[in-house]
Amino acid sequence: MAARSLCILALLAVLILSGCGGGGSSPELVLGDYYPLLVGAVWTYNTVLQAETQTVNFSTTGTMRRELVSLQNLNLGPDVFTCYVFQHDYTANDFPYLDAASRPVEPFIQYLFSANGGLHSVRSYYRIVPAAANFPAHLELVALQRVGEPVVRVPAPRPYLFTPAYHGVMQAASLWFTPMPLMPFVTDLSSVEEHDKTLNYGTSGGIGGSTNCIINIHYYGANLNVDDGVAAIAGRGRTFYKDGVGLWGFDVQSEWYGTINVGGLTSRVTSSLELTSYTPPGP
Predict the structure, then answer these.
(1) How far apart are CA 192 and CA 66, in angstroms?
(2) For position 12, what pLDDT does the model report?
(3) What is the pLDDT of residue 177?
(4) How far is CA 118 from the centre of its chain?
(5) pTM of the model
(6) Is residue 283 part of a domain?
(7) Mean pLDDT value of segment 131-155
(8) In total, how many domains does the chain have?
(9) CA 107 – CA 126 distance, rounded (Å)
(10) What is the mean pLDDT of residues 167-176?
């Protein structure tokens, strides 16, 4: 296990060194409503899902539907949180075929493309944490739930996004903020390492008109546990949010990738989102 952890950290270090620059060292407030919390709102996305091994390249398309279904009290042991609950549902139009040379990584790629794995319907529970001394208000991910399974509390330090957003801020977190197609579920991961930063992106058009966007960039490494096997996985996510719209993908697309390593054999999976419709709740 120690060797696998070293492998994860090495992959993560390479990704950090080769990743996007920028970010700034001085936090800068970015005004706007980047995470609309309106119960009944629905976002629909087209997705592109890809898998690449040393001998096979696979690509397919699908969909993601994101709905803010309720505002409810969530009982997590001694704590009760008032949470906004988002439902995420995915489809894929094909399933990867891998050749004999890809057998060591096959279980992990098939898991990520499975309705029981990376394409499993997921509920996300967020709470608003009020401003406190020397710390602004923020939206915090407190729990996740796959359909038909118990609610899983997100361990501290929990991922959060400032409201309003802060450009140039970096923080430690234990998982990714927004579930993306192909992302492993928290209970299938161990030895997670991550850091992230938020940047001010600029103006984007399309749905919601011409308004400002921010981007949250995170780098991660972990062990991915599938059945009795373990792989090292590391990568980067870039999640855009648009003022007044929320999770965004149009002229720029929110995306995630992971590099999987099993005994020196590597593969890569990627997913991206393009927003096709945003429907706020009716009157």
Answers:
(1) 26
(2) 39
(3) 86
(4) 11
(5) 0.89
(6) no
(7) 89
(8) 1
(9) 32
(10) 78
